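Hey L., structure's done. Input below.
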Amino acid sequence: MVTTVTASPGVGSRTTVAGPGLPAGRVNVADRVLQKTAERAAADIIGVDAKNVRVEIVSARDTAVVRVTTPFPVPRLDDTAAVGAATPVLEAARTAQTALRSRLTHLFGRDVSRVDLTISGASVPQRKRVL
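Output:
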């Protein structure tokens, strides 16, 4: 038994999945789905709003390279305790790259061979008002 699933126009590709037993064929996921998944994963791991994250994915058959451009969270400079306790930006960025590569490899179901992270600015937490 073979089932054919066709995505909505402009959303993805035709996918063929075999019935009982081993799957045959390929599963194609629309590039836009991978991009949105990567944007949200990056925003979650880095700690910024997803609308400020830009992602470019270059993929081959079994691997992908992900390029992320995002502001990076830093403490308010007038909060000396937070500045003193903060992880240095380069160290935090390397940790984020490793975590993002691991998560995207899991989510995409294929190897993400590299994550390039470009820090486009600083994201400072808003002050909370006390009423």
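Residues 65 and 114 are 5 Å apart (CA to CA). Residues 30-123 form a domain with the Alpha-Beta Plaits fold (CATH 3.30.70).

-- N.
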